[in-house]
Amino acid sequence: MQSLCQYNRFSVVTRGDRIHARISCPRTVNAKANIAAVVVSYEALPFLTACLHSLEQVAEISDIVVVDNASSDGTADWLRTCPANIRVIANERNLGFAAAVNQGCQATTAPYLLLLNCDVEVPVGAIAPLLAFLLSQDRAAAACARLLTPAGHEQLRVRNQRRPIALRWAPAAALLLRRQALEQVGWFDPLFFFYNEDIDLGIRLRRAGWQIYLVPNSWVIHHEGKSTDRIRHETIVHGYRGGLYLIKKHYAWALPLARMGIHLEVHLRALVYRFLPRRTAKQQAFLAAFPALCREL
To answer: What pTM value is reported for the model?
Structure first.
């Protein structure tokens, strides 16, 4: 039986523009680690290589599945050279994040599933607290790690960082899920192409009586948005489309009002951005997405 860290304490050390882990877990529980890591990749080869390299040192992971959504940056060729312990699912077209996650999860039988964005690096000792927490809480469906930038800045706004915190939903960038809970609620909804699929999952898990937690002594490095930098205008459209689908699915009574509010917000933003003397890349992408957004709304 393998000795796993139980929730205890952590510290973060910043050196230059990088962060380094010091995770201390002197209290232990005995359990057999059986985690499958599922990594969805798209157009982010340098970050995918760093992600997989970081997973090599995670003792709790028994299986690694990479699902590539038809990347054109050489990812497919590079994945053919991966070690045999890394299984690869190469899609011929981009199926979206939710569908790709389902592919990876259903390709393994592990009772615990670690979902990782391909632009995430996992420090040594980061996964053990997540697994230990799920083992200690029968109704916990998911345990989320803190997301830090390479400079050590928090990406999740959480006030209390001393004990696990119950969440309404958790981002799938670094999320350990109990397979039993995921199977019960029916996996991720593939109609969410990109964005909002984690919110939808959180709603369904809580309605089924499960809980979701942030475990603050687990953290990962997240180079946010590297899979979407090249298609930023498309991700904006998917974000709004997914938001409307989320409202239609769970709060249909509010859909007409939501459409009106989003319609007003989109047009006001476009009006303001057009008159800016200088625009950021995100603002320029929004203007490129504006015609498609008008058709969506």
So the answer is: 0.84
What's the pLDDT score for residue 178?
A: 97
Residue 25's CB is within 10 A of a number of other CB atoms, namely 19
Q: Are residues 214 and 244 in the same domain?
A: no
Q: Could you give phi then psi for residue 182, rounded to 5 degrees?
A: -65, -40
Instruction: Give the residue from 222, 237, 270 where a domain finishes.
Output: 222
One domain for residues 108 and 214? yes
Same domain? 177 vs 253: no
CA distance 65 to 103: 9
Number of other residues whose CB lies within 10 A of the CB of residue 94: 18
228: three-class secondary structure by DSSP: coil
Beta carbons of 259 and 293 less than 8 angstroms apart? no
Q: Which of 222, 237, 254 is the last residue of a domain?
A: 222
> Do residues 66 and 133 touch, judged by C-beta distance below 8 A?
no
Helix/strand/coil for 224: coil
Specify the DSSP class assigned to residue 32. Answer: -
Residue 159 contacts by C-beta under 8 Å, 6 or more apart in sequence?
A: none
Domain count, the chain: 2
In terms of phi and psi (left: phi > 0; alpha: psi -120 to 50; beta: otherwise), the region of 16 is left
Residues 238-268 pLDDT 10s:
899 999 999 999 999 999 999 999 999 999 9
Q: What's the one-letter identity of residue 145?
A: A
Residue 32 has pLDDT above 50, yes or no: no
Do 142 and 272 have their domain in common? no
Could you tell me the residue range of the domain that residue 33 belongs to? Answer: 2-222
Both 156 and 244 in one domain: the answer is no
